[in-house]
Amino acid sequence: MTSVSDFSEQKLERASFIREVFSYIHRFKGQLFILKIEDSLMNHPLFPVLIRDIIHLHRAGIKVVIIPGTRKSIDDQLKVWNIDSSFHEGVRLTSEAALPLTELASLGVAQKIMSYLTADGCRGIQGNWISARSLGIIDGVDFMRTGRIERIQKDILESLLAENFIPIIPPIGWNKLGHAYNISSTELATELCKYLQVGKLFFIGNEDGVHKDGLITGPKTQYLDSNESGIVSAIDIEQAEELLSLNAEHLNYAQKDYLANAIRACKAGANRVHLVNGETQGSILEEVFSGRGEGTMVYANQYSCVRPASIDDIPDILQIMQDYIKKGYLVPRTSESISKQLSDYVVYSIDNAIHGCGALHCFEDGQTAELAGVAVAANYRSSGVGDVIVRHLIATAKMRGFKSIFLLTTQALDWFYPFGFRDGSVEDLPQSKRESYNYKRNSRVLVLSLENS
Predict the structure, then answer these.
(1) pLDDT by residue (tens digit) across 125-145?
(2) Would you tell me the crossing angle of helices 253-268 and 237-246 to the nearest 10 degrees?
(3) Where are the beta strands (DSSP E) in 288-415?
(4) DSSP code string of 201-239
């Protein structure tokens, strides 16, 4: 049976999620998303739902370009005609005999996606605006009719997007003589980031994302943030490069390929690159309209950080704290009290939305600081945001030369112990804090020594 407190908590989480969705709709309206969709998803029961979700994005004012992955469809076509096909370092070697069937398969995938869009009232348009040239012979390997992108007709794509079309670009390119080449759909999706201003690039396939368990981490990746499923949520380019270098034997081919191409796409101009499982209902909407989606994201610019709080953050800080205050976890605060000590506060920001806060108050002896006001938005409490804030404040205290940190808590003892805090007493508090200690509240005192740490 659901208790009143549980129901209240669920309402709070829903309200927080709705606010977050509105903020993301406003932020992404008018931006361009490139979606590479693996054709292995096309026979999955949820494929029409995935397309419907993409249509929702489009109707919310987001521009969309779709790049169909075609590997499975090409394999199926070649198998029917008993034509062998081989790969070299993940690239298909396309023979003259295989090329017409490769074209047929690629155009068929694009046509099927367009039929779903059209059936739902969207204006999909299939075309090929790609100039290509032969890969030729590399290290003795003849790539035959497999090509490399030479140029993308940016002006045509921009005109179509301005007229509210959803362009679907199959991975086939032509040279100046009209000869066709099979090109990599992943390369096409990544290369578009050089030509167009891309907000997000999605690789939508059968992978959930990069799993945190079993990963070898280094200095840049030791505090990886993961979701409830154990998927690494978000990493920057440098972290992605470190994971690739340390986990060559641990990541599967798809994950390594994703990370490598995500890095290239970010360097080419994409703001965010997402690996999303298209077999999970609503995964793309979760990834777009939540700071913590179901997949793994690699980002180029600053995505999330702990930063000093500003005067404009105070309403968000109070909103996040309110549930903690109501439950007795935190003492009440007002706009005025926070404003007076604003320089002590930090916030955890995701895409400029505030999802956590905390403060470090210094005292008269100059050697002791109080960790206070740590709170996390309802829908982020299992995300590790609180851990990041506390680690940041501890590091700040060390940098400022404090010898110890203390905190007062009524119900979060076990949460703070792993950071190195130990039980203390009122006598461990600075003089002014001892004098203002609320014996009726009877908070426990925890102390962390920073000397020799």
Answers:
(1) 998 899 999 999 999 999 999
(2) 150
(3) 296-299, 304-308, 345-350, 353-362, 368-376, 404-409
(4) EEEEES----BSTT----TTTTT--B-TTSBB-EEEHHH
Contact 310, 346 (CB under 8 A): no
Order the strands of the 32-37 sheet from edge to edge: 124-126, 166-168, 63-68, 32-37, 200-205, 272-277, 296-299, 234-236
φ and ψ at 71, to 5 degrees?
A: -60, -50
Query: Nearest CA to 148 among 137, 132, 124?
Result: 132
Please check the confidence at residue 421 and state whether its pLDDT lies above 80: yes
What pTM was estimated for this model as a whole? 0.73
Dihedrals phi, psi of 83, to nearest 5 degrees: -105, 125
* 98 neighbors 106 (Cβ within 8 angstroms): no
User: Based on the number of CB atoms within 10 Å of its own CB, is 374 exposed (0-12), middle (13-18) or buried (19 or more)?
Assistant: buried
Element (H or E) spanning 19, and its range? helix 4-28
Sorted by sequence, the CB contacts under 8 Å of residue 399 that are 6+ apart come out as none
Q: Where are the beta strands (DSSP E) in 18-146?
A: 32-37, 63-68, 86-88, 91-93, 124-126, 130-134, 137-138, 141-142
Q: What is the pLDDT of residue 122?
A: 92
Q: In angstroms, rounded to a whole number, what is the distance separating the alpha carbons of residues 435 and 364?
A: 13
Q: Minimal CA–CA distance to 122: which of 68, 166, 170? A: 166
| Distance between CA atoms of residues 155 and 157, nearest Å | 6
Sign of the four-CA dihedral 90, 92, 106, 174: positive
Q: Which domains does the chain have, with CATH numbers?
A: 4-302 (3.40.1160.10), 305-449 (3.40.630.30)
The residues that bridge with 125 in the sheet, in sequence order, are 167
3-state secondary structure at position 186: helix
Secondary structure of residue 93 in the 3-state scheme? strand
> Position of tokens 């295989």?
98
